[in-house]
Amino acid sequence: MPFVRDILRHRSLSIVGMEKNTGKTVCLNYILRRLNELGAHVGVTSIGVDGEQVDSVFATAKPEVTLYEGTHFITSEQHYMKRQTVSVLEAVDSHRTALGPLVTARVLVRGKALLSGAATTGILRRHIEQLSSRGVDIAIVDGALSRLSLASPTVTDAMILATGAAVSANIKQLVSKTKFLYNLILLDETTPALRDRLSGIPSGLWAVDSDGEPHDLGIASVFLIDRAEKDILRFGKTLFASGAVSDRLLRVLAAKGRDITLITRDFTKLFITPEAYMEFTRRGGRLMVLQRSRLIAITLNPTSPQGFLLDSKSTCDALSDALQTPVYDVKKITQ
Amino acid sequence: MKIKELIKQDPGFQYVIDNMEFMSSAGRRKTLNTEFCTDASVLQAEWDRLEKAIQAIREYKYKKPYIELRHCLMQLHDLQGTLANLANHATLNEVDLFELKSLSLLAQTATGAIAGLELSRMLPLPNTSEVFSLLDPDHTGIANFYIYDSYDDRLTPLRRELSALQTSEGDPIRISELLAQQNEIQNEVCSRLSDQLIPWTDTLVTAMEQLAYTDLLLAKAELAIAWELTRPEIGDHIEYTSLVNPRLKERNEKAHLRYQPVDIAVRSGVCLITGANMAGKTVLLKSIGTAQTMAQCGMYVPASKAVVKLVDGIVTSIGDEQDEMNGLSSYAAEIIKISNILDTCRSHDMLVLIDEPARTTNPIEGKALVQAIVTILNTMNSITLVTTHYSGLGSVATRRLRVKGFVEGMSDVPLTPQNINRFIDYSLTEDTSDDVPHEALRIASILGCDQEMISLAKDNINH
Lengths: 335, 463
What we know:
The structure holds two protein chains of two kinds.
Chain A: H1 4-7, E1 12-17, H2 24-37, E2 42-46, E3 65-67, E4 72-76, H3 77-81, E5 86-97, E6 100-109, E7 111-113, H4 121-133, E8 138-142, E9 158-164, H5 171-185, H6 192-198, E10 205-208, E11 214-216, E12 238-241, E13 245-246, H7 247-256, E14 261-264, E15 270-271, H8 274-282, E16 286-289, E17 294-301, H9 312-323, E18 327-329, H10 330-333
Chain B: H1 3-9, H2 11-18, H3 25-32, H4 40-60, H5 64-74, H6 80-87, H7 94-113, H8 118-122, H9 129-134, H10 155-167, H11 172-197, H12 201-226, E1 233-234, E2 238-243, H13 246-254, E3 262-266, E4 269-274, H14 281-296, E5 305-308, E6 313-317, H15 330-347, E7 350-355, H16 363-378, E8 383-387, E9 399-406, E10 424-430, H17 440-446, H18 451-462
Parallel strand pairs in B: 1-5, 4-8, 4-9, 6-7, 7-8
Antiparallel strand pairs in B: 2-3, 2-5, 9-10
Helix pairs in contact in B: 1-2, 3-12, 4-12, 5-7, 7-12, 10-11
């Protein structure tokens, strides 16, 4: 029973897919079944209203989630009406989605249901709180397509990363893409003292001097960095970007100097390509995060939505070797 | 006209509404749908309730009844759609029924929270206990809802079998059958419950609207306390002591600038307002407009003492309303607007606020036009305020007020364009001369404008 006990050490968990059809839902079903066997009180929701019964892109069947007795779940009114469980409504949210208001219910007789949820991390955080207040041991969020934001440690405590043939049918490429994201997830954290100092900064690019004191560089946008009148490295070579980090920022910094350390909030703020990251690191650049996400497991779906099937064992092995961490085939662990 | 339309016409009033704190979207909706009221007895009754609400908040603000009531209002959902479906005899689904159960529980809880207080006499909530009982067959006493087994005898055995099959991962075809049967029964129950609830439609609508109204009233009362608003009297004229423009006051306070309230009294006919530039004439018009709107929407007003004359509506011509999109010049847009105002005033008693009419055309025709506008409005029942820089209009207006304006030595700090506000006395004085203040050059000079321009202008006056 790999990694399920790890989950219970956290209050909330997100399941994030690198692409659509990387087996998030299969993975979620596995987790829900194991947690039920362990007798855990589970709360579950999703991000966004992505839960069509049939995947609208590839028309592959979208598996529903099996919910067990006692589970609290949040979904939209329309999905609630289609559920195949017996459950009690406990709350209706005033926040409305395209599929009606979001409702919270408790399962009386197990069965399948479609999950949908808040489209913003703000409301999602409120829902995780709400589930916690109903006494759940763990609140699980099923991720929608390429929505990494919910894996931010400010939203969920821990994460599971789902990868698979949908990312690339070429094992080498699949490994390199997964490894790149994996490395970003595991970026080193700053000291807690520095985190306390920087986390309240709402926006902009800041310099951090050798005493850990932040200085506003007065650069409103990365696009204006070239026109900054004063040397952005006048306080030292450590910088903090409060918002998103782009390829452009990395390239500009690589051009400005060597051995620059760029601190970001967490890996979900990084919108960068391996190429730009490599340019930055070749010049001695280093990325750090205020808060690292706790990655519990990586799962693999060897089937691509076009029906292409990778060899499960060799792909898992290739990934495990490259990442130095176990990778599980979702279809196999559920058997 | 409703508040939701009025706020589009008056940014000052929009600011007022934006500063009201509603507990529920239903309370906000109810406020935005409040009509501009011309009936004195309706307004008096509303101000009576507001007065009591203010007393209640002062007395109970941090005490249990008020906290509980606010908590109830925070949980209030706007169920207009659901209640309309009920009224139209549509079948409600489980989520709708949950919402109605919550509403009936909320009404009961709110009633309990304020029982025995003056507020409960003022805000009577209907008895919804029978609705709650209908939706709580197992007497749980909480708002949770599903199609309980007790609604239909067939449900218990069906769900027992379903549960056993699901747990043992039994025959999926049988499971599908049972789920389909369950859905059918649930739909029947929903349909039956919907029918049983139809007679309670009015009760539930009243409960929701009364809770929404409570939210509205408390929001008005909280604002009246925070901004020290005053209950107006209704009279045959408009009179304010220490009238404030809330938006400007807040802006000045944020910028650490002085804010000076103004006293003013105006009657039917035209009151001309003169005064130097920067003396706050336009702000005065806007303040009077906002205060009148607040009063006739059943709110208190931003002054220390207030008399209002109820009018049929407020019409204004303030600011640059150049409608370039329609290809109109600023003069054309303005004169069409004023023409419409005159037309309205022929059949209605209005509050008319006109800022510097005809200022964008030649002064000879401009003055002649202003004279004509003032002459016409002066014979009407409407209350009109007109600001102007034209002199020699005294004979045609009922009254003339002048903003005292720039006073050298009013403050002992050196005068700069940034602190000029400290040197202006915004109070009004009865004007006996028929001349307007000539301070345009002085102000230009204080603002540090081009010296050559100013001295040439002075020469031109002297020649």
